[in-house]
Design a protein that fits this description.
mainly alpha, 292 residues
């Protein structure tokens, strides 16, 4: 079943808050602290939790797969991640964190027939995702499924999210956009203020060099805003990302995708309404593009 790119993008926007719960919920910080990670900022837990399905891999691979983070930042957190504990223990801790967080956030909804249906539909899409050339999706797809609907939903959201992210890197590279340029161009297009992107911890000099490269290609104005060509390239990147994210959704009919979208709204509102997630992020979830 072929779905519109607008629908593909909508499903990402609905599922992203489910996945992102892991990185912001108090329960995730509690589990990270119990493992021995610092919790004064979210990054030690973030890198451990997100990289754990890959095993105790080194910073070079994590930099390649996470793409837009400064390699120095990746090295700082990835090396200490596996000095602190094992990937197996991190995986167990993240499961505990997600279980506790979603039980609290969703309340009685956890045991509802609607959530079970939501999880079943999302799992069908996730299990149909080809992981060829999609290392982050493959690593998460290789993990065992829980029998609990809220955990099934979270894992499905995670597989689909990482499947999309793997494709997004392909789209960026197809357009000649490197890691730092990806952030500069996204900020220039209005995804979020530049200070939001500073969380990736590139230096001012590296940011300036990326700006110069984009300026030389006619993608950036002197004041840092995107040119018409810059906006066109950014829209093209997002279109290709959506196209590369579409295949798993072919497992569901149009009615089933509509039903999943309808079912996701209440739990997503529970998550967003709790105030855990930032109002602005580097993902540009609220941005509109002509193709969508």
């Amino acid at each position: 079943m072929t779905h519109s790119l607008g629908t593909i993008r909508q499903m990402w926007q609905l599922l992203e808050p489910v996945h992102a719960t892991l990185y912001y919920a108090p329960e995730a910080f509690e589990q990270a602290a119990a493992l021995g990670y610092a919790t004064d900022e979210r990054w030690p837990g973030y890198f451990a939790y997100r990289a754990a399905p890959l095993g105790p891999v080194g910073p070079r691979l994590v930099s390649a797969l996470f793409y837009s983070f400064s390699p120095r930042m990746v090295e700082r957190h990835t090396v200490t991640a596996w000095d602190t504990t094992t990937a197996e223990r991190v995986l167990a801790a993240r499961g505990t964190a997600v279980d506790r967080a979603l039980r609290k956030l969703l309340g009685d909804r956890v045991d509802s027939t609607d959530l079970r249906e939501t999880a079943e539909l999302a799992r069908r899409a996730a299990e149909s995702a080809s992981t060829a050339g999609r290392p982050m999706a493959a690593a998460n797809a290789a993990l065992s499924w829980s029998e609990e609907p809220h955990m099934v939903l979270w894992q499905a959201a995670t597989i689909l999210r990482e499947h999309r992210g793997d494709g997004h890197i392909v789209a960026l590279q197809a357009h000649g956009i490197g890691p730092t340029e990806a952030l500069v161009s996204h900020a220039a297009a209005g995804a979020a203020p530049e200070e939001v992107f500073s969380s990736r911890q590139w230096t001012d000099e590296e940011w300036a060099i990326a700006r110069e490269r984009l300026l030389s290609r006619g993608l950036l104005e002197a004041d840092g805003g995107a040119t018409e060509e810059g906006l066109r390239i950014r829209a093209s990147i997002e279109k290709l990302t959506d196209e590369l994210a579409a295949a798993p959704w072919a497992a569901l009919t149009a009615d089933e995708v509509d039903r999943l979208a309808e079912l996701l709204v209440p739990p997503v509102l529970d998550i967003v309404g709790a105030g855990l997630l930032p109002m602005q992020s580097t993902l540009g979830i609220g941005m509109k593009y002509d193709h969508a």
